[in-house]
Amino acid sequence: MDCVTNLTHLSRAYARDQRIVKTDEFSSVFRLRPIQRTAHFVLYARANQLAKARLGVVVAKRFAPRAVTRNAVKRTARELFRHSMLPAVDCIVRLSKPVNAKSGPAVTTALKTALRAELTQLLKSAVPAMNQATAQATAQAAVSATVSAP
Question: CB count, 10 Å around CB of 145?
């Protein structure tokens, strides 16, 4: 029974192949204009040639001065990404406005709830744009394969 539970847990893990980790991968996604914005976040996306979606999260210290807050933002973004059914795209979620002041508590239940709601809305509203980007990339690949065929 324990093995089954562990396997189920692993299937929902945020594996390394679901992360954008290299600088050039981040740069290639940042070159495109954002596909979605909310009050605190900007979402960039680019179709990839892989079988699954990948995520990068950028949380600047000037917008979340405490490490606890930055980690909470990243953790929430990763959790929602894992549970979303996104097409094969590279996504970057970037915090673009301050989420709390340095004088108050680092993370509150209200802040976590607000972050979760905003990130959920960001990912859900961006799915149609991501599907369109994936379809365009597939069409371009098909055209280039046809052109290069003898």
Answer: 9
30 part of a folded domain = no
- Taking the C-alpha atoms of residue 46 and residue 56, their distance in angstroms, rounded to an integer, is 12
Residue 63: which domain range? Answer: 35-127
3 state SS of 131: helix
* 3-state DSSP helix/strand/coil % of the chain, to nearest 5: 50, 15, 35
- Model's pTM, two decimal places? 0.75
Summarised one tens digit per residue, pLDDT across range 63-113 is 999 999 999 999 999 999 988 888 888 999 999 999 987 777 888 899 999
On whether residue 93 sits in a domain, the answer given is yes
Contact criterion met (CB below 8 Å) for 20 and 48: no
What are the DSSP calls for 69-117, one per residue?
Answer: HHHHHHHHHHHHHHHS---SEEEEEEE-S--S-SSS-S--HHHHHHHHH
Write the CATH number for 59. 3.30.230.10
